[in-house]
């Protein structure tokens, strides 16, 4: 079967590889090269690099307009496949392939329709998630579902770890669905249940509110790791919390208060404290939280204020 594949980030690569191993991928559509790093060097998307490695033709476009539609039409595709492309497929492109388009989405639809389903599921404290392959329609993530898989969300699993696992597991689900569509045996069923939305995360979504209960703070931290990255404010600047652990055996601290107990750096929340593991102060490199805290304590001792660091997160 002749496939047009649309995707951009690394999580789409397992699906591209799985589909290309079973069918003829006549084009890979991905977003245009973007400036990355401090030097803002124009860099191809991860999917573009994977397509080049696989010897597949690449179409780079941030908008699927008339030009891209005409190029795809000339390829006479049987099916379009989308995995995290980062743009909308509208008419007439939506109806152009003989079998339309399917989308691999990383949630149990209709829960968490939108751009950040894995992150929103973790932040919300969901205990289960999955992936779904559905028929693409004009309404956001609302098409009938061909297949889905379910998996638990680990208590300490970050959004990045969960998304990586779903990308691998979902690739097989997607390839099997494409096989079924090719054989004419695929059956789709309408979505049922409560619709919830998963809009793209903004920077403010990554700020930890330490007045909330520890489980909610920890869920948000995991949900925004690695991107956009959890943070609190320290003296008006962003202080990144790259890794933390729950504690079940520590006395409470006032929300935002930070204390070094033995080798553990604890930050107070609305309930139990969280142990900070890896942090990144503003303008500095990532470091073990204990190293950072010892540096604070040393500075305090030099200033003749030994016994209290005075560190409080906002």
Unreliable parts? 301-308
Read across the widest sheet, the strand sequence of neighbours is: 5-2-1-6-7-8-9
Task: Count helical runs.
Answer: 7
What sequence of helices (H) and strands (E) makes up the elements? Answer: EHEEEHEHEEHEEHHEEEEEEH
Mean pLDDT: 94
Number of strands: 15
Radius of gyration: 23 Å
Query: Describe the biggest sheet?
Result: 7 strands, mixed
What share of residues are in beta strands?
Answer: 25-35%
Please report the distance between the alpha carbons of the first and last residues.
56 Å
Category by helix and strand content: alpha/beta
**Shape, per Cα inertia axes:** elongated
Helix-residue proportion: 25-40%
Structure, described:
This protein is α/β, with parallel strands linked by helices. It contains 7 helices and 15 strands. The protein has helices at 13-20, 46-54, 66-73, 117-123, 159-183, 214-223, 289-302, and strands at 2-7, 24-30, 34-36, 41-43, 58-60, 79-83, 101-105, 128-135, 145-152, 231-234, 237-246, 258-261, 264-267, 274-280, 287-288. α1 (13-20) runs parallel beside α5 (159-183). It is elongated. 38% of the residues are buried.
Summarize this structure briefly.
The chain has 314 residues and is α/β, with parallel strands linked by helices. It has seven helices and 15 strands. Strand 12 (258-261) and strand 13 (264-267) form a beta hairpin.
Main attributes of the structure:
15 strands, six-stranded antiparallel β-sheet, elongated, 7 helices, alpha/beta, 314 residues, seven-stranded mixed β-sheet
Element layout with pairings:
Blueprint lengths: L1 E6 L5 H8 L3 E7 L3 E3 L4 E3 L2 H9 L3 E3 L5 H8 L5 E5 L17 E5 L11 H7 L4 E8 L9 E8 L6 H25 L30 H10 L7 E4 L2 E10 L11 E4 L2 E4 L6 E7 L6 E2 H14 L12
Parallel strand pairs: 1-2, 1-6, 2-5, 6-7
Antiparallel strand pairs: 3-4, 7-8, 8-9, 10-11, 11-14, 12-13, 13-14, 14-15
Helix pairs in contact: 1-2, 1-5, 4-6
